[in-house]
Amino acid sequence: MMMESTILEHLDSAFQGNAIQKEALNMLKEIGLPHKKSEAYKFTPITSILEKNVSFEEKGKNAIDKNKLYKEEGSHLVLINGILSKEDSKISDKLILKIGEITEGKHDPFSLLNTAYANEEIVIESGYEEPVFIYHFNFNGLSNPRIKVNVKDGHTFRIVEKLITPEDTNTFTNSYIEFTVGKNAFGYHTKVQNYNLATFSHETVVANVSRDSHFYNNTFSFEGALVRNNLTINLDDENCEGHMYGLFLLDKKSHVDNNTSVDHKMPNSYSNELYKGILDEKSTGVFNGKIYVRQDAQKTNAFQSNNNILLSEDATLHTKPQLEIWADDVKCSHGCTSGQLDEDAIFYLRARGINEKNAKAMILNAFALETMEHVKIESVREEIQELINKKLI
Questions:
Q1: 253-276: string of b/e by CB count within 10 Å (b at 16+)?
Q2: What is the sign of the dihedral through the CA atoms of 161, 221, 64 and 52?
Q3: What is the distance between the alpha carbons of residues 175 and 219, in angstroms, rounded to a whole number?
Q4: Angular region, 74: left φ>0, alpha ψ -120 to 50, beta rest
Q5: Signed CA dihedral, 373, 173, 148, 111: sign only
Q6: What is the distance of C-alpha 96 from the center of its chain?
Q7: For 32-68, where are the alpha helices, taking DSSP H only?
Q8: What is the three-state SS of 199-228?
Q9: pLDDT value of residue 5
Q10: How high is the pLDDT of residue 368?
Q11: Residue 267 CA to chain centroid, in angstroms?
């Protein structure tokens, strides 16, 4: 079925991609962007929302706010409208970084949109112990940042991503980052999503994990008009692990949709997923988590949990944990909870002289703390804690 979205009608005339991008565009036209009846976007009708709210005209490059950059040692990559700005970046001589033509990636609709319209593909090679900070400054109606990260055998690699957009212009950032984690390696990826109500984003993360390796994804969401996170972890070999931690702490009319998938393909793999939501005012949170255990993936351990607290009667939560298992010698569990603050706990704290507001903040802080376990970079951890405190106190 040909896609009739006005988004592509507008973009089609400006297409200038290579053969792979042309193929991606043709595939995208064939399958279409998600419509309101698409099961995977049931609670996030992103296509119609974008058509109503975002102009896809190019607006050019603005000056970046350097106060948004971390002060840590390491490489700091500044992307403006999806293109690496070398003059604004700080790149270590030890970091291997290449910019080239677009290569293939995941074939879901928004990944295809990214493939077709990305201006460049940034390839980062590890062999580098200091963290890499990536800042996406988007001033355009549409931006398609595209990054591929290759973590070499036996290495540890840490990447932190942030998106910064203007407050007075509706923007859509459709980002794609793919990790290939070598043997006996560790990959850590952290995203801090503190946007504004003029920011719309669809953010795809793909990790392909090799034998004896670990991949950790940490996603912290605090505000945004509409944020969709697609996270896919492929455990491709034996004795590899995938860890997913997420916190969405929302108020106003923010909408955050976390869609996760972990695919166990070989024996003796392990995955652990923990997402927590705190929703206030008229915010909306969505969690849709899938675990696949293939027939060859015997001795798999897979755990998934989504726990939520609703602070307002106007807040909305949709949660759907799922397991699909074709192996018989596995340990798998999933579950979700949602409710309000524990009144007994509040009473206990108030009886010890703590006022009600601080008592609630203490309980919610403790609830959120577990999701920060694998954030090892101190300035990032401090920023997340500060954002949590700002929301709760």
A1: ebbbbbbbbbbbbbbbbbbbbbbb
A2: positive
A3: 14
A4: left
A5: positive
A6: 24
A7: 46-53
A8: EEEEEEEEEEECCCCEEEEEEEEEECCEEE
A9: 58
A10: 93
A11: 27
Predicted confidence band of residue 4 (pLDDT cuts 50, 70, 90): very low
**Longest distance between any two alpha carbons in the chain, whole Å:** 69
Query: What is the chain's alpha carbon radius of gyration, rounded to the nearest angstrom?
Result: 21
Q: Are 187 and 179 in contact (CB under 8 A)?
A: yes
Write down the pTM of the prediction: 0.95
Alpha-carbon span 145 to 114, nearest angstrom: 8
Contact (CB, 8 A) for 247 and 261: no
Q: Are 144 and 80 in contact (CB under 8 A)?
A: no
Rounded CA gap, 261 and 288, in Å? 9
DSSP letter for 141, please: S
Residue type, 274: L
Torsion sign, CA atoms 29, 35, 40, 41: positive
Helix (H, G, I), strand (E, B) or coil at 196: coil
Region of poorest pLDDT, from 152-156, 177-181, 232-236: 152-156
pLDDT above 90 coverage of the chain, percent? 77
pLDDT, mean over the chain: 92
Compute CA distances 269 → 244, 245, 300, whole Å: 14, 18, 5
Q: Which two tokens stand for residue 35?
A: 């419509």
Distance, CA of 392 to CA of 14 (rounded, Å): 45
Q: Judge contact between 322 and 289, C-beta under 8 A.
A: yes
Nearest 10 degrees: CA dihedral of 86, 91, 93, 94?
Answer: -140
Query: Tell me, what DSSP letter sits at residue 11?
Result: H
At 263-291, the pLDDT tens digits run 999 999 999 999 999 999 999 999 999 99
* Residues in CB range of 235: below 8 A, 6 or more apart: 209, 241, 242, 262, 263, 264, 265, 266, 269, 271, 297
- Cα–Cα distance between 342 and 380 in angstroms, integer? 30
Cross-sheet strand order for the sheet of 186-194? 83-84, 75-80, 132-137, 156-164, 186-194, 214-223, 241-250, 270-279, 300-310, 330-339
| Contact (CB, 8 A) for 281 and 312 | yes
Angle at 139 between CA 104 and CA 67, to 5 degrees: 105
Q: Is 285 strand, coil or helix?
A: strand
